[in-house]
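dumping this here so i dont lose it
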């Protein structure tokens, strides 16, 4: 799906990958870019920098999604491509509270469902439009102590796959980006204060958000469903699919080694 001449919405665009996606969309000739975020100051500063339109909204509620869509339509008349990028990266084991789990579920899954529900009828009628969900490489894998993050990113991929099966032939482009490490405030915050070996592991192969955004927008413009920022993720996914038990053994060994260097609570 071409970006040039199209109106693009990016959620979670106040910083990190979202801000980079908004910038790349602008540079590819988008007719308008909506920079939506919970943090209005960040969204405003990105919008001013790229000539976009800042919208303050919380994607964890249906009314927040409605606000983004209404404000985008008021400003630009239509939405051609909606990128559900907003995410949270807190630890989320099974011992996290139900409120934490619900927050992960709403931001990583329902935000995409609510946007699709609101936008699909018009896109199907026009035979044109696109919905992209930014999941994660963990949608094709899993990380320790992050059950809520892992589960909701797996679900995000499943929702996107279903939409792609159901609506591709109606002219709607569906994509799912599964980035691996990117040097965004999310990753840097997670690694802040971590033991050096763990931090080095987390940062190994982490790429700049602008490079990740360029790969993702390339994937969108090529019309690909699964968009990776790191080629090796394809290999990991293939190994996991080929022998799940072997893959789990490897994950346990790797993280047991790293855990011995992690004294965080
Ligand atoms: N950074 C990584 O290494 C990495 C790896 C894989 C996937 N991802 C995914 O990429 C996406 C972007 O991550 P990032 O690293 O840029 O994160 P980030 O924390 O740096 O930025 C996320 C942005 O989303 C906004 N946001 C959070 N909750 C929101 C809400 N309820 N409503 C509106 N905005 C909200 C934040 O204010 C922030 O501006 C996320 O979905 C994340 O899960 C990140």
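and the seq i came up w/
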């Amino acid at each position: 799906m071409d970006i040039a001449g199209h109106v693009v919405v990016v959620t979670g665009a106040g910083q990190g990958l979202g801000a980079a996606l908004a910038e790349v969309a602008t540079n590819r000739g988008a007719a308008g870019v909506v920079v939506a975020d919970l943090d209005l100051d960040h969204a405003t500063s990105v919008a001013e920098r790229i000539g976009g339109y800042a919208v303050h909204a919380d994607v964890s509620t249906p009314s927040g999604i409605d606000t983004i869509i209404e404000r985008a339509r008021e400003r630009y008349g239509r939405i051609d491509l909606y990128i559900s990028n907003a995410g949270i990266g807190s630890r989320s084991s099974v011992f996290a509270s139900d409120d934490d789990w619900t927050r992960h579920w709403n931001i990583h899954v329902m935000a995409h469902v609510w946007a699709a529900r609101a936008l699909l009828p018009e896109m199907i009628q026009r035979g044109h439009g696109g919905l992209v969900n930014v999941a994660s490489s963990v949608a094709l894998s899993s990380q320790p102590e992050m059950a809520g993050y892992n589960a909701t990113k797996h679900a995000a991929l499943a929702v996107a796959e279903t939409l792609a099966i159901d609506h591709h032939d109606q002219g709607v482009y569906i994509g799912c980006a599964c980035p691996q490490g990117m040097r965004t405030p999310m990753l840097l915050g997670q690694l802040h204060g971590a033991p050096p070996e763990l931090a080095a592991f987390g940062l190994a192969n982490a790429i700049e958000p602008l490079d990740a955004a360029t790969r993702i927008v390339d994937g969108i413009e090529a019309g690909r469903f699964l968009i990776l920022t790191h080629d090796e993720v394809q290999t990991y996914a293939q190994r996991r699919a080929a022998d799940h038990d072997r893959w789990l053994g490897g994950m346990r060994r790797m993280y047991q080694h790293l855990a011995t260097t992690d004294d965080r609570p």
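The radius of gyration is 18 Å.
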